[in-house]
């Protein structure tokens, strides 16, 4: 990032000038000397014995302490104490972790400035004041958010097309995630399918740093249009909804774990493999390695966590609409999970095992509606909650301009693989 480096250099030059003015320092400015080490593989630094100001960036490694870093950098013994004298400053520097970057400017064993990045948008900076104390400030370098509306016609896979349209993989994953209940992005995609979307772009000092939220998207699969807009009900969590306010999500995952195979189906007339007598199999068995994460199939409240007969370690969750799900033979439960815990759909609740009556590692999964066992592989899964009627007006006011934006970019597209983009501040 040459621009950034240039900015920092200018800041450094200005600060040196200021500090020298303040300290009544040497008349010959040491600017050349301080810049020389940063010049690209340049001539050896110009000898400037009068002003050996040094700038260094240290990346914290395992086992580093501020004491060690200050000693390594040749700082005088009192300098760390001076930095720690301000309790607020002390709080912000005392815990350093591997990967942290510390930028120091040192004048003959004396600390001139100390910088530490606190977050993506905040930098702590301490500088020597004219009275010799170190004064600190936190600089805010906010993320700039923009909007991008674009789209493309699919020629290969979704990811090839998003690549061509300059859309990040992270955003492409979101498209696939949002529509995964309706579209199989491996099997259902056809050349000529198309998509349009509006998403946030993030930058800092004019440099792009990634994509923000995906705000609205439409996908036309084999002539059928699917639309989703991101919206958060007052006091709720963000979700994606169709134009008429229905959730894109089902309220339940079809299977509560990935990367598994069905080893025993729902069967009310099965001979039990261990007991060797007729005993209904009121769930589905998913064979998977011990330790495979098991997820809550739907949002709800944990009703039971513990050991129960042939189930071994088992979790039961109650959901809206009289539905209950059961997860048996677990090797262990997720930390902190107990009766009464509210879980969201997809949260890891435990891990595959073979506790209880089990011949091998698998998850035994049951789905009950009003107390009756249903086949988890076949039961029609209810949709997640729609936009509440009382919030429909607010939802439409939020969504309508986003739909209009997608219509605009879709209409502007005249040929395959051509994209149209627009950008405006939020
Ligand atoms: Zn089973």
Structure, described:
The chain is an alpha+beta fold and 426 residues long. 20% of the residues lie in helices and 33% in strands. The chain contains 8 helices and 22 strands. Helix 6 crosses helix 7. It is extended and about 85 Å long. The N terminus and C terminus are likely disordered. Zinc ion binds next to loops.
> What count of helical segments does DSSP give?
8
Radius of gyration: 30 Å
Strand coverage percent: 25-35%
Give the termini distance in whole angstroms: 26 Å
Query: What would you call the structural class?
Result: alpha+beta
Please specify the SSE layout and strand pairing.
Layout: H1 2-23, H2 31-35, E1 53-59, H3 66-72, H4 79-84, H5 87-93, E2 101-107, E3 110-117, E4 122-128, E5 134-140, E6 144-153, H6 158-164, H7 169-178, E7 194-204, E8 207-221, E9 224-231, E10 239-241, E11 261-264, E12 284-287, E13 293-295, E14 300-308, E15 312-319, E16 323-330, E17 332-333, E18 342-343, E19 348-351, E20 362-369, E21 372-374, H8 392-412, E22 422-425
Antiparallel strand pairs: 1-2, 2-3, 3-4, 4-5, 6-7, 6-22, 7-8, 8-9, 9-10, 11-12, 12-20, 13-19, 14-15, 14-18, 15-16, 16-20, 17-19, 20-21
Helix pairs in contact: 6-7
